[in-house]
Each structure stands twice: as structure tokens, then as C-alpha cells.
Write a structure and sequence with these properties.
Blueprint: H1 15-22, H2 24-36, H3 43-56, E1 60-64, H4 67-77, E2 84-89, H5 95-102, E3 106-110, H6 121-133, E4 137-141, H7 153-163, E5 166-170, E6 178-179, E7 182-183, E8 190-194, E9 208-212, H8 215-224, H9 247-257, H10 260-278, E10 298-301, H11 308-316, H12 347-355, E11 356-359, H13 367-382
Parallel strand pairs: 2-3, 2-4, 4-5, 5-8
Antiparallel strand pairs: 1-9, 6-7, 8-9, 10-11
Helix pairs in contact: 2-9, 3-9, 4-5, 4-8, 6-7, 10-13
Length: 383
């Protein structure tokens, strides 16, 4: 008797294929750490920081325990705290605003551009005015290079300079992308990124890094990541935290960085195939002039009136996973809804939260599998 077999599931992010590609190199890298037993601040940490600096063009790299710690450590180093305002887009992962609140400052949420999903500069201006009206001192802006694409750093930098703010670029989803020919990590005062396993460059646990050209700031950050230590570990000269990157994770990232350029090129091919196959039925991602993406996610917007849950269910029935980033923007979430938003509200953030959905995206998505996804998307919409 013939049985209807459920299609094999498609990985949303295929870490296993990358693991097979790297073969024994990661095993050997981990074995070297296990042999020398320098699990904290071992030689691989310094080697990784040098490799990341060479890759990005930043003069200084300070690795740390997570992307969230990277943001928080910068705010601590700059003495951002009570009475200060930090401008953040609301359509992003909560860590962006969370770090501001943890530092004791006030996140002021601003809207995003409907085409790129990145911070809207007009809303940023309104957010600065809102902060001032509330008696807060605007100190910084945290643009987010969302879903892998660079924000408009020239426009953001000009506003920040005019208002006396520093720019902390949140490139947690976009390390490896570029803006007008320069890699992220070289814009604003400082850049924070994440090596969470699902990121384009991810380790096998939590990890992050801070990139800057400011030598004094880098030295302060190195102190903060080890409890604020000074000349020795029992002379703590400032408040800090345990923010170090494990040596094992550094060893793993060194191996992954060797194939990162190739993986970025593969991700761009996958994105191009999606755009060609779906561009006439959904709103596919828009790349701004001068910006590149590493496609941390491939996020589409469904046509007006589409039942997003039914669409996701239809794909799931065919073994195709989806994800929604983000069903609630930050200002709509319980922990953040009492923080201020830019005058005029955040209508684009709220609209995006209602109609975006992300499809499988990784460097190992072969063409036949991608055609299966495209066919399923088109079929779900036509039905």
C-alpha cells in the first residue's frame, strides 16, 4: 500500500553542513586548547582579535562573552547612566534596548525605514527632540544593521555629530557586511557584534566582540570585561563584569573565519535566487545603494490581508520552517512599553511586526532545496 511520506525537513539555519565542511579542523583547534588548558584568555583569544581586526579594518578588537555584553560594556566605558537617553530602533532584538536599561539610562525608541528595516533618520531626529523634552540628556545612538544589511551610517553619523552623540553600531546580525566600500566595524565610535551560533559568523555557544579605532576606549573595555581590574586583578579601578570570550570559542571562530568570505558569497547567491523566484508575489528585501548584506535572515513581507499563521502552517506541513522577527517591536513588549518613543509614534515598526516572516537562509542552501521553498511559498499564497 502506498503511504504519503512527509517531506524531509529543511534546516532553517544549517550549522551541521558547515560543521561537515570544516571537518577535523575544529576538532583539532579544540584539542589544542584542551592540551594547553588556557581556557580563559588563552592565545587563541589574542589571535582571534588580531584576525577580526584584519578582516574588518578596525584598529582594536576586544572580544567578549556575548553581543549583549558588547553593548553593555561600551555604555559602561562611556559612563552612560541615569538621566541619559540612548536612541534605539524598536524593530530589533531586545538586547539593543536592554543594554541601555541595564546601564541605568533610558532607551528612547525610534522608527525604522519601511524599505530597509533600519533606523529612520527623521524619526531619529524626532527621538532626540523627545528625549530633550522629557529632560533627558541624549548621549548616544545605537543603529542596528538589521538582518545583515548595513544601516545608513553617513546620515546617522551626521545627526550624531550635530547633536554631540556617539554612535555605537549594533552589528550583531551584520558582521562581514559593508557600507560604501568599508566593512562594518569602522563606523561611529565603536561597533558591537555577536557570535551566537545562528549568526553568519557564529561560535558553538555565546560570544561577541567590540571593534573600535579608539585605543583608550579599547583599554577601558579590556578592564571592564575582567571586573574592572587595573594593574592587577586585586586592584579594580572601575565597575566591570565577567565578560570574557572563552578560549574554546575563540579557537572555533578562528577556523570559521577562514571560510567566512566564501560563505558570504554563497549567502548572496541564495538571496538572489529568492529575489528572482519570489519578487512578484511578496515584498523581498531591499538593498540600499552602497550597502551590502550578509543575510543573517531572509525576511519577506506578505501581501496585505495574508493570514501569516496559516502561511507558516502551510510551509511547515511541507517540512519548511519559518520564523518571525519580530512579532512585537520593543516598545510593544511588557518590559519596555513604558519607555519613551519618538514623537509621531512608530507606525512602521508596528506594521512590520504584523507582516514580516523569514525563510530558511544559510550558505549551504542548495538550488533544488531552495526551489522547493520557493514553490511552497508561491503555492501557499495562491491557495
Amino acid at each position: 500500500m502506498n503511504q504519503h511520506l512527509r517531506p524531509d525537513p529543511v534546516p532553517f539555519i544549517d550549522v551541521a553542513s558547515q560543521r561537515r565542511r570544516l571537518g577535523h579542523s575544529i576538532d583539532e583547534a579544540v584539542a589544542r586548547v584542551l592540551a594547553h588548558c588556557q581556557f580563559i584568555n588563552g592565545p587563541e583569544v589574542t589571535q582571534l582579535e588580531a584576525a577580526l581586526a584584519a578582516f574588518s579594518g578596525a584598529k582594536h578588537v576586544v572580544t567578549c562573552a556575548s553581543g549583549t555584553d558588547a553593548l553593555l560594556m561600551v555604555l559602561m566605558a562611556k559612563d552612560v547612566g541615569r538621566g541619559d537617553a540612548v536612541l534605539c530602533p524598536s524593530f530589533t532584538f531586545c538586547a539593543t534596548g536592554e543594554a541601555v536599561a541595564l546601564a541605568g539610562a533610558t532607551p528612547v525608541f525610534v522608527d525604522v525605514d519601511e524599505a530597509t528595516f533600519n533606523i529612520d533618520v527623521n524619526s531619529l531626529k524626532r527621538g532626540i527632540a523627545t528625549a530633550k523634552r522629557l529632560g533627558l540628556k541624549p548621549r548616544a545612538v545605537i543603529p542596528v544593521d538589521l538582518f545583515g544589511q548595513s544601516a545608513d551610517h553617513d546620515a546617522i553619523g551626521a545627526i550624531a555629530q550635530a547633536e554631540g552623540l556617539f554612535v555605537l553600531d549594533d552589528a550583531a546580525q551584520a558582521f562581514g557586511a559593508s557600507y560604501k566600500g568599508r566593512r562594518l566595524g569602522t563606523f561611529g565610535l565603536v561597533t558591537a557584534t555577536s557570535f551566537f551560533p545562528a549568526k553568519p559568523l557564529g561560535c558553538f555557544g555565546d560570544g561577541g566582540a567590540i571593534l573600535t579605532d579608539d585605543a583608550e576606549l579599547a583599554e577601558t573595555l579590556r578592564s571592564i570585561r575582567v571586573h574592572g581590574q587595573g594593574s592587577d586583578k586585586y586592584d579594580n579601578v572601575r565597575l566591570g563584569l565577567t565578560g570574557r570570550l572563552d578560549t574554546l570559542q575563540a579557537a572555533i571562530l578562528l577556523e570559521k573565519l577562514k571560510i567566512f568570505e566564501d560563505e558570504i558569497a554563497a549567502r548572496n547567491l541564495v538571496a538572489a535566487r529568492y529575489a528572482q523566484g519570489l519578487g512578484n508575489v511578496v515584498t523581498v528585501p531591499y538593498l540600499a545603494s552602497g550597502a551590502t548584506s550578509v543575510w543573517a535572515q531572509y525576511t519577506i513581507r506578505l501581501p496585505a490581508g495574508t493570514d501569516r499563521n496559516a502561511f507558516a502552517a502551510a510551509l511547515k506541513a511541507q517540512g519548511i520552517p519559518t520564523a518571525i522577527y519580530y512579532p512585537k517591536s520593543m516598545h510593544q513588549q511588557t518590559a519596555y512599553r513604558d519607555y519613551p518613543v519618538a514623537d509621531g509614534g512608530l507606525p512602521v515598526c508596528e506594521k512590520l511586526s504584523e507582516d514580516v516572516i523569514s525563510l530558511p537562509m544559510h550558505a549551504y542552501l542548495d538550488e533544488p532545496t531552495q526551489e522547493r521553498i520557493i514553490k511552497a511559498v508561491r503555492g501557499a499564497l495562491s491557495s
